[in-house]
Amino acid sequence: MEAFYYHIAWRSRGGRVGGHPTKITGGHADFNAHVPLMQSFNPKRLDLRASLKTVPKQLMVRTFHERYAIQAYAVVDMSTSMNFVGHQHKWQLSTEIVQAIAWSAICNGDTFGCVGADDVLRMDVYEPSTYRAVVVEDIASKMRSVQFTQPVGINALPSVSELLPARRSLIFLISDFYMDEALLIQSLQNLTAHDVVPIVIWDSAEITDLPDWGWMRVNDMEGKGTRSVFLRPALKQAIKNTYRTRQQRLTQLFNTAGTRPPFFVLNQFNSEAMTRHMLEDSGC
Question: Best-predicted range by mean pLDDT among 38-52, 92-106, 235-249?
C-alpha cells in the first residue's frame, strides 16, 4: 500500500492548520496582495519596491492566505457485485484503495473518514473523520471482516451525504458503477457540495479475458437471476464494445454532475497513476 499525492483547486474555509489554500488572511505561504501598512500593520512584511510604485507614496506590506487541512472521505459501494472475483477480488481491491486514501490523507495532514452503503447505510464500516494514523489499519480491519451473505444492491447510495460533513470535502467514490443511471445521477446530485473523485473498479475477466467459443453461465450477483450464454467472437466483441460505451457514458455523467474525471482501475490500483490523475485534473 502506497500513498498518493492530491491537490485541490478550491480554497478551504476553515479547520486546522494544514497544507491546502484557504480564503482566510494570515500565514506566510500563499501571497494574497499588497495593502497599506495601516490596513495590515506588520512591518516585517514591508515591501519597499511596491511602496515606491504607489501614487501618492505610502508604505505597502505583503499579505498572505492561511493554509488549512481538509476532510477526505472514501464512499464505498458494498453491493454484491463488489464481491466479484476475477483477476482480483473487487472488495479486497476496494480495501487496498481505501487504505491508500486514508494513508494519503493522514500523510497530507488531513482527516480521513469512510462511509459504506448497499441497500442501507453500512455502519459496520463507518469511520468518522479523524487525524489518527491508526485509522488506516482500523478501516482495513473493518472492511476485511465484511461478509457478503445475500444479494444486495446500492439503493442507499444517495443517502451517504447524510453521514458527510456540510463543509466542502474531498470525496473518493469507489464502485464498479453497475447501477441504474437514475440512481447514480441522484447520488451525484446529493454530493454536489463536495469535490468528488469517482474511482471505477473493473476486472478484465469481465471484459476482455473471455473465451472465443463455449458456454458460459452468467450470474447477476445482485439477485436478478442467472442465464446461460454461448460465447462466440462476435458476442465477445459486443461485450468489449458495451464496456467501452459504458466508460464513455460514465465519463459524460460525471462531467455533467461537475465531479472530477473518473479514475478507472483495471485489476490493480497504481498510486503513481492516481497521483498523475489528481494533479493533472487540478491543473498542477
Answer: 92-106
> Which H or E run includes 221?
none
71-281 homologous superfamily: von Willebrand factor, type A domain (3.40.50.410)
| Local confidence band at 206 (pLDDT 50, 70, 90 cut-offs) | confident
Please give the average per-residue pLDDT across 126-137, as a whole number. Answer: 92
DSSP E strands in the chain: the ranges are: 17-36, 60-68, 71-77, 111-117, 121-130, 170-175, 195-202, 214-219, 226-231, 263-266
Cell reading at 16: 486546522
Cα separation, 259 vs 44, whole angstroms: 42
Q: What region, left, alpha or beta, does residue 17 occupy, with left being phi > 0 and alpha being psi -120 to 50 degrees?
A: beta
Q: How many CB atoms sit inside 10 A of residue 86's CB?
A: 14
Query: How confident is the prediction for the chain on average, in pLDDT?
Result: 86
From residue 24, alpha-carbon distances to 11, 12, 30, 31, 155 in Å are 9, 9, 10, 12, 39
The Cα–Cα gap between 43 and 193 comes to: 40
Q: Is the pLDDT of residue 219 over 70?
A: no
Q: Residue 74 is placed in which grid cell? A: 472514501
Q: Which three cell numbers stand for residue 258?
A: 461537475
pTM (predicted TM-score): 0.82
Compare 10 and 92 and report the one with higher pLDDT.
92
Nearest to 111 by CA among 120, 102, 99: 102
DSSP codes joined into one string, 44-59? GGB-HHHHHT-SS---
Total residue count of the chain as it appears in this document: 284
**What are the boundaries of each domain within the chain?**
17-68, 71-281
List the one residue out of 157, 198, 211, 176 whose CA is nearest residue 88. Answer: 176
